[in-house]
Amino acid sequence: MPLRGPLKSAARGKRCSLKVAGFRASAVSAGIKKKGALDMALILSDVPATVAGLFTTNVLKAAPVLLDMERAAGGTASGIIINSGNANACTGSKGMRDASATAALAEKVLGLKKGTMLVASTGVIGLPLPMDKIKAAIPRLASALDERGFCDLSEAILTTDAFTKTVLVKKKIDGVMVSILGVAKGAGMINPDMATMLAFFMTDAALTKAPLRSALKVACRTSFNSIMVDNDTSTNDTVLIMANGRCGVALKRGTEQYREFCSLLDEAARRLGKMIVKDGEGASRFIEILVTGAATDNEAHQAARTIAGSYLVKTAFFGADPNWGRVAAALGRAGVKMSESSLDISFNGVVVAAGGLDTGAEREAARVMKRKNVLLQVDLNMGSGSATFWTTDMTYDYVKINSAYRT
Amino acid sequence: MPLRGPLKSAARGKRCSLKVAGFRASAVSAGIKKKGALDMALILSDVPATVAGLFTTNVLKAAPVLLDMERAAGGTASGIIINSGNANACTGSKGMRDASATAALAEKVLGLKKGTMLVASTGVIGLPLPMDKIKAAIPRLASALDERGFCDLSEAILTTDAFTKTVLVKKKIDGVMVSILGVAKGAGMINPDMATMLAFFMTDAALTKAPLRSALKVACRTSFNSIMVDNDTSTNDTVLIMANGRCGVALKRGTEQYREFCSLLDEAARRLGKMIVKDGEGASRFIEILVTGAATDNEAHQAARTIAGSYLVKTAFFGADPNWGRVAAALGRAGVKMSESSLDISFNGVVVAAGGLDTGAEREAARVMKRKNVLLQVDLNMGSGSATFWTTDMTYDYVKINSAYRT
Q1: Scanning every residue of chain A, which has its alpha carbon at the shortest distance from the alpha carbon of B232?
Q2: Cβ distance of B310 and A232 shorter than 8 Å
Q3: Cβ of A232 and B406 within 8 Å?
Q4: Cβ contact (<8 Å) for A189 and B319?
Q5: Is 0.90 topped by the overall pTM?
Q6: d(CA B256, CA B246)
Q7: Which one of A356, B141, B181, B340 is separated from B367 by 20 to 30 angstroms, measured CA to CA?
Q8: What CA–CA distance (Å, rounded) separates A85 from A39?
């Protein structure tokens, strides 16, 4: 019973309700993926937007990541051109030339200033981009731009994903409705510090570079940096936010309005983060790990992350086995302050270990672990640090998807 | 096609050829495991032996580990009493009392001085030891002691293992034949810094405490600390060596004879380490990872270990997919000095990436990756550091074994 069914798409074309003022999008099939699937997409702001980005911590960064890091540092961008099916990673100097050429052609076709387009790629590592297909697709992307194009875009950026991941949040700030639209992809190679994921946020609020970057960084901490499917860190992880100011609200750091915007962005990012985990490759259960009583919040995060990364914990979740010893063993190598005799562990509210000792509740715990959603609570009883982390179980399907990805 | 077949045992009883002067062993079924399997074992040296041990780095250490750490520090021991089926880990103060009581009863029955027996346990975490069964078994273990008992012992210490793991190496040192007998168990929770493994070495050479400990530490580095099945570190990992001096050769640090002994112990440990990986839970392939050209040997070890711990690399090996991008992505998060443009990768001698670029040898590489043994060579071209690491692929059977372990 995998969580993932056949590909579910958002409503397409005119029925698409994902709109934010001053942004348009489009998607086409360029022939990079097989079978005519959508594989290229374009986002355009009608006016130059403030931009901020967060990128993979992997030393091997894909060409589009290197290009975007440089361009996002400038603080302004007009749009993003995206392809799926090929990551343009480990492609050397040709990869850098291809990323630049893709941006340059989009800028030319759209009549934009040079250096204002960002680029994102996701898919197989190590193969050169099929530039002939990409070049042929760009004019078609430009002419298909539409304010209702984000549903198509949300499908075009997927790789092994089983469903599209979108969020639209709105809030009245200073009497004016502010919108944040988020679109993401990701299902494997999901690890904190960004994984094989792309996420794009578009908002009609007005922010300058530094507060926009700060808001994005904070939002990522409790969303994309608190999820794990496997332990791998991708070469392509990119989160971008564009703010075009079209709704007329200008947000300055330190104000109540800015804080409201930040919490709206937190919510959007958390919702997308959870969707990525629910789409985790082969997942049959969604696991929320709540660690409390750690010495610090950072230690709680580290403890939760270590549990989430344990193959043995994840296979036990698949088998609905309340094997709390595996959780304890993972905590013991997490590098956090802990003591066996003060460790409490529960699964969906059923306490299986108290003060480091088995409570004899195995049968009851096994029953509640059969649910699709399992809450694993760990209290270290060392301090007041806490953290939440989301992960999946480890299943036959995970192995199947990843052993047969290219073959 | 798993590497593991049905349980293979060494020749039992009188046909057992695993002998080393002055050591006897025995094994019985105490009823801890199901179906009357052997689950308790005893090793005894006829004279008090010099002892050295290495133990899990997990903060949560099982009761027998805590007991042995204290006793091995003393430098002398007469024997080891071992149970499988229950790890006596996360069992609190009762666990400590049970470990001490097990040792004490063995000492009494064998007429030994108090504090001279070591204890080892492996199996499920979090459940109390069935002390009634253990107490009843100890007199039977004592009366079954035999110089040909190590074959039975090698079976009694197993948990999820599919075959027994033994090694007997001999070498003439100073004109006298020195023997080292090694027995190990381990198949899952295998990670450097010791995993769910037990290994016991018995030698008839004479060494004092410090050089014995030093020889053991070096031997573990290129054996038990260079293998990985999964990322988990057990609470019970224990490697012990006992030297009883019965062959008459005394080995002093700094001598040629001592170096010969060390290299003999290295060989014994490496052979057991490889057996543990070949018995890796669910493994269908044995992977040797050779990293060269690292800035230092430590960085090479770290790089190899990171590759070995990647779910995505391990599933690709299962699928015989020469997806070198996953290897590169793992290297990129390994925290070692590297550069994309100087990275060379090959599978069983077929170069798939040279200077960080794909060589187009995918089809040929896929063919040679279908073998049971795959050599992954990575040259970072940064320096002269190198390391070898052994691991398994990640298969359906790994998930099956670990999701259904207790149910």
Answers
A1: A310
A2: yes
A3: no
A4: no
A5: no
A6: 20
A7: B340
A8: 7
Q: A20-52, pLDDT tens digit by residue? A: 999 999 999 999 988 889 999 999 999 999 999
The boundaries of every CATH 3.10.20.340 domain in chain A are 286-403
Distance of CA B364 to the CA centre of its chain: 34
For residue B234, what is the nearest residue in chain A, using CA coordinates?
Answer: A329
CATH homologous superfamily of B286-403: ArgJ beta chain, C-terminal domain (3.10.20.340)
Active site residues per annotation of A: 196
Q: CATH 3.60.70.12 spans which residues of chain B?
A: 13-278
- ipTM of model: 0.71
Angle at B229 (CA atoms; ends A319, A61), nearest 5 degrees: 100
Distance between CA A384 and CA A345 in Å, rounded?
16
Using only C-alpha atoms, chain B has a radius of gyration, in whole angstroms, of 22
Q: In what helix (H) or strand (E) does residue B314 lie, and over which residues does it extend?
A: helix B311-318
Mutate to test the interface with B, among A97, A98, A127, A333 (most CBs of B within 10 A): A333
DSSP state string for B99-141: HHHHHHHHHHHHTPPTT-EEEEEEEESSS---HHHHHHHHHHH
- Give A49→chain B minimum CA distance, Å: 32
A256–chain B nearest CA distance, Å: 39
Catalytic machinery residues of B: 196
Separation of alpha carbons A207 and A116, rounded Å: 18
Q: Do A318 and B92 touch (CB under 8 A)?
A: no
Q: Exposed/middle/buried for A299, CB within 10 Å: 0-12, 13-18, 19+?
A: buried
B33 HSE (CA, 13 A, CB side):
21
Residues of B in contact with A125 (CB under 8 A): 323, 325-326, 328-329
Give SS3 for B159.
coil
pLDDT of A192 higher than 50: no
Three-state DSSP string of chain A: CCCCCCCECCCCHHHCCCCCCCEEEEEECCCCCCCCCCCEEEEEEEEEEEEEEEECCCCCCCHHHHHHHHHHHCCEEEEEEEEEEECCCCCHHHHHHHHHHHHHHHHHHHCCCCCCEEEEEEEECCCCCCHHHHHHHHHHHHHCCECCCHHHHHHHCCCCCCECEEEEEEEEECCEEEEEEEEEECCCCCCCCCCCCEEEEEECCECCHHHHHHHHHHHHHCCHHHEECCCCCCCCCEEEEEECCCCCCECCCCCHHHHHHHHHHHHHHHHHHHHHHHCCCCCCCEEEEEEEEECCHHHHHHHHHHHHCCHHHHHHHHCCCCCHHHHHHHHHCCCCCCCHHHCEEEECCEEEEECCEECCCHHHHHHHCCCCEEEEEEECCCCCEEEEEEEECCCHHHHHHHHCCCC
Q: What is the pLDDT of residues A340-365, one digit of tens each?
A: 899 999 999 999 999 999 999 999 99
Coil, helix or strand at residue B208: coil
Question: Which of A87, A340, A396 is opposite residue B399, by nearest beta carbon?
Answer: A396
Distance from CA of B212 to the nearest CA of A (A): 27
Mean pLDDT per 10-residue segment, chain B (407 residues): 48 80 96 92 95 85 93 94 92 95 98 96 88 98 96 92 90 92 77 57 92 89 74 72 91 92 90 86 89 95 91 89 89 90 95 93 94 95 94 84 63
Please report the sign of the dihedral spanned by the C-alpha atoms of residue A338, residue A342, residue A347, residue A348.
Answer: negative
Q: How close A72 comes to chain B (CA, Å)?
A: 22
A13-278 is a CATH 3.40.50.2300 domain: no
Residue pair B21/B204 in contact (Cβ under 8 Å)? The answer is yes
The closest CB to that of A235, out of B323, B332, B366, belongs to B332
